[in-house]
Write a structure and sequence with these properties.
The complex is a heterodimer of chains A (about 170) and B (about 140). Chain A is an alpha+beta fold and about 170 residues long. Chain A folds into 2 domains: about 40 residues; about 120 residues. Helix content of chain A is about 45%, strand content about 25%. Chain B has about 140 residues and is an alpha+beta fold. Chain B is rod-shaped. The chains are: A alpha+beta (about 170), B alpha+beta (about 140). Chains A and B meet through helix 1, helix 2 and strand 5 of A and helix 1, helix 2 and helix 4 of B.
């Protein structure tokens, strides 16, 4: 009777060791999967980038709350040059060959400034923000002479491949 | 002999009960792992770079508008000088009210406060303050 019981106990331990080993593998796989899932989603910085871009444009066209008309006239022809903006992603070779990833529209003092791909405007106001360009709109008032004029800045950043999971 | 078989029966019952406990424990662990992976998936989708500050609230445009208000001239005197002087506070308050009404017409709502002047037009967002001549004024848009 004693011998039988000993054999049974050894078997129990082996089964339990196997069970613990399988459970350990399941938990380990789950942790590794969780890390992979979390980091496989790209960090989406487009809304922040669009906000910073509109701030840069506003900073370029206004100086201490006063409209910089010289810069505004210059920007009508070439906003990138006038405001020292580099709207080309050269972080990777495959991105540098892509067509424009930005769109900037400025309405100020009766003048309209546009730069980049106008087609992105069609995506503004859409509820999905994952695989489509992200829009940002800013309105401010600056002094022109002694009167306030509104400046409306719309910036759109596409960069889907760099920021959003496909 | 009878006693021995009784002991064996008791042992088998115990083994079945223990196995069932571990089967349920395993099921619970696996369900928890799936919930964990589901939560991680949801968290991953929420990844963005706001750092708790909305890009809409950068405050730059509010700052430019505050400077604009302070630089506006009324009867040959800037609103900034009126506030520093203090004696023209009533005129400054009326003029700031008119300016903020114009802003609100274009759906830019701002609140101005400082040195006894308070003009409320339903501003929400980041407050920008500026100090000059010992006075502090702020605008929230």
């Amino acid at each position: 009777m004693m011998i039988n019981l000993k054999i049974n106990r050894k078997g129990d331990e082996r089964v339990l060791s196997m069970y613990w080993f399988i459970l350990f593998i399941i938990v380990a796989v789950a942790i590794v999967s969780a890390v992979l899932i979390f980091y496989s989603y790209l960090l989406d910085v487009r809304s922040t980038e669009a906000g910073i871009l509109s701030d840069r444009v506003a900073d370029c066209l206004s100086d201490n709350g006063i409209l910089n008309e010289g810069k505004l006239d210059e920007a009508v022809n070439n906003i990138e040059g006038a405001c020292n903006l580099i709207l080309k992603d050269e972080s990777k070779e495959k991105y540098s060959s892509m067509k424009s990833q930005y769109y900037i529209k400025v309405e100020a003092n009766g003048k309209l400034i546009e730069s980049g791909d106008r087609d992105f405007l069609a995506y503004c106001g859409q509820s999905s923000k994952v695989n489509i360009p992200v829009c940002f709109e800013k309105k401010l008032f600056v002094l022109n002479g002694n009167d306030f004029v509104p400046i409306k800045i719309t910036t759109v950043v596409r960069k889907v491949e760099q920021n959003a999971k496909g | 002999m009878q006693k021995d078989s009784f002991v064996l029966k008791m042992n088998k019952k115990g083994e079945v009960s223990e196995t069932m406990t571990w089967v349920f424990a395993t099921i619970i662990i696996i369900v928890m792992i799936f919930l964990f992976l589901f939560a991680v998936n949801l968290l991953g989708q929420q990844k963005n770079m706001n750092f708790g500050v909305k890009s809409e609230d950068s405050g730059f445009s509010t700052q430019e508008m505050l400077f604009g208000i302070l630089n506006k001239e009324v009867s040959g005197k800037t609103i900034r000088d009126m506030i520093v002087g203090g004696d023209n506070n009533a005129i400054a308050s009326v003029e700031i009210g008119k300016i903020l009404d114009d802003f609100a017409y274009y759906d830019v709502r701002c609140d101005f406060s400082g040195n006894g002047i308070k003009v409320i037009r339903g501003g929400s967002g980041k407050t920008v303050s500026v100090k000059f001549g010992g006075k502090e004024v702020s605008l929230r848009c």
